[in-house]
Design a protein that fits this description.
The structure holds 2 protein chains of 2 kinds. Chain A contains 6 helices and 10 strands, in the order H-E-E-E-E-H-H-E-E-E-E-H-H-E-E-H. Chain A is α+β, with helices and mostly antiparallel strands. In chain A, strand 9 and strand 10 form a beta hairpin. In chain A, helix 4 packs antiparallel against helix 5 and helix 5 packs across helix 6. The radius of gyration of chain A is 18 Å and the shape is globular. Chain A starts with 6 loop residues before the first helix and ends with a helix. Helices cover about 40% and strands about 25% of the residues of chain B. In chain B, strands 1, 4, 5, 6, 7, 8, 9 and 10 form an 8-stranded antiparallel β-sheet that branches. Chain B has a 5-stranded antiparallel β-sheet with strand order 11-2-3-12-13, covered by helices on one side. In chain B, a hairpin with a 2-residue loop joins strand 6 and strand 7. Chain B is α+β, with helices and mostly antiparallel strands. The chains are: A alpha+beta, B alpha+beta.
Chain lengths: ~230, ~270
């Protein structure tokens, strides 16, 4: 048992630990399409979600350890609802939420012995594709502002590569869903994902009030057959 | 603070972490004076009518402060969530604050729990909030809501009324609250049928509001000069829908035209 561990070593160990935890699960992809932002998760559970609504135009997707990203999701909903109630619904932004998450994750990473094994996306749909905002946060609190698409968790490199090949701007919902599903299938050779093994949701800028909607298994099937 | 485990209720979270944002705290200063010392705007008549497939809720647009008309185009009927509507009568400032909190409350629960509250669950949450205002109600700052929604389990529209102490009562067929409500309720009693269409239910609401405005000075009638008409909303299995202004304008015009010939409005058969 060493008495002294350098900060560099401690941080590296924590980061390696978190990365390993995150890589154990299955992937989630987030991508823009012509009417908004699409979220696709390789998740057979109907009840335990990896994709959720945070606020009118904001949604959340996460990979990693369930109890940890669920705690963050609940905190995000509270943060958004308190701010929307205190100021106005328009004053709740993905940027504000991403900053709050970055603070929490950064503090947990540096100050506690065990970092959170999570990676998140906070996305806000804008008036058009140019004003959509997608923020990706990692376990240590770093934030990246993404455009187009994001893949996280599981065999992320393979999924990201597949997504890069398939993504283009202005895809229809059916085409974007197909691209997302094919990318998730790249996690393992011969992996085929059926509608009921998928959790799919959208932020659709053409809706009213709350723009987040989950897609049902029949709707997912319909979209997949439409695009094949 | 945001990450502390616990409640799915927004009000409870707000009460323990941001008590200063609660409506009763925000407005305590108002209640601490002698009652009646300040003339706060009051919102008045609200009506709701069920029909097969849903419920229609409507409110006039007048807010009064003593004998003065404080506002001519105030809105008292609100979307509570996808399947319900809420409206207020009484002290406008407090009522609107409670409505805002109630809207966040039920949406917050839905997001936290991943399921929507039952219609009764929503009605009960609203009762709790009204009870929270009891202290101020005792000092004259009374606010009572009317809550109506579509119950997806029973596949029917339902109406709930409240007293200032948070008592919750389910009303059948139709109901009205506010200072003009006695007149509106009398009107609805004669107009309501079990087989109303949505259009007819909306028309019955506009007729009832006209009758309320006819006899209650705090209720505003349709203002054809300024083009200010009641707010009318329908809640069905397809969700909350506020009727477009042109539709309500047509209804209001029809009601006013009808009154040229018979000022008392449509009459019910005597026998």
């Amino acid at each position: 048992m060493p008495f002294y561990v350098s900060p560099e070593q401690a941080m590296k160990d924590k980061a390696d630990y978190a990365r390993k935890g995150i890589a154990r699960g299955r992937s989630v992809v987030v991508l823009q399409y012509d009417d908004g932002i699409l979220f696709v998760a390789d998740n057979p559970s109907r009840a335990l979600h990896k994709i959720s609504e945070i606020y009118d135009r904001i949604a959340y997707a996460a990979v990693g350890k369930y109890n940890e990203f669920e705690t963050l999701r609940l905190a995000g909903v509270r943060y958004a609802d308190v701010n929307g109630y205190q100021y106005d619904r328009r004053d709740v932004t993905a940027r504000g939420l991403a900053n709050a998450y970055a603070q929490s994750l950064g503090n947990i990473f540096t100050e506690t012995p065990k970092p959170y094994e999570v990676e998140l996306v906070v996305a806000e749909v804008g008036e058009d594709a140019d004003t959509d905002q997608i923020y990706r946060l990692t376990f240590d609190g770093s934030v990246r502002d993404e455009h187009g698409y994001v893949a996280m968790g599981g065999q992320v490199e393979a999924v990201e590569q597949a997504l890069k090949e398939r993504f283009s701007e202005g895809l229809s919902l059916a085409a974007a869903l197909r691209a997302g599903v094919q990318s998730l299938e790249a996690q393992e050779a011969d992996r085929r994902l059926e509608a009921k093994a998928l959790e799919v949701a959208v932020l659709d800028r053409n809706r009213e009030h709350r723009l987040f909607r989950r897609l049902t298994a029949p709707r997912i099937e319909e979209l997949l057959s439409e695009s094949s | 603070m945001f990450m502390s485990p616990g409640t799915s209720s927004f009000t409870e979270f707000l009460g323990s972490h941001h008590p200063d944002l609660m409506p009763d705290r925000r407005l305590t200063a108002l209640g601490s004076g002698t009652s009646g010392a300040v003339d706060l705007p009051h919102a008045t008549t609200i009506v709701a009518v069920t029909y097969p497939g849903g419920v229609v809720m409507a409110g006039d647009r007048r807010a009064t402060s003593g004998n003065v008309i404080a506002q001519r185009d105030v809105e008292k009927v609100f979307r509570a969530d996808e399947l319900s509507a809420v409206a207020i009568a009484g002290t406008a400032g407090i009522g609107m604050e409670i409505v805002r909190l109630f809207q966040v409350e039920i949406e917050h629960y839905e997001k936290m729990e991943g399921r929507t509250l039952s219609l009764e669950g929503k009605a009960n949450r609203l009762a709790t909030m009204i009870r929270g205002n009891l202290g101020m109600a005792m000092q004259g700052l009374v606010v009572v809501p009317l809550f109506a929604g579509y119950d997806i389990e029973r596949e029917t529209g339902r109406i709930f009324s409240y007293d200032p102490a948070g008592g919750r009562y389910e009303e059948h067929d139709f109901y009205s609250i506010g200072s003009g409500s006695v007149f509106a309720r009398g009107s609805l009693k004669k107009l309501w049928r079990a087989d109303l269409s949505e259009d007819d239910a909306a028309l019955a609401c506009v007729q009832a509001l006209y009758d309320a405005a006819d006899d209650d000075s705090a209720t505003g009638g349709p203002d054809l000069i300024r083009k200010i008409f009641p707010i009318v909303a329908a809640v069905t299995a397809d969700g909350f829908r506020r009727l477009p202004e042109e539709e309500i304008a047509d209804l209001a015009q029809a009601v006013v035209d009808g009154r040229y010939d018979s000022p008392g409005g449509p009459s019910a058969p005597l026998r």
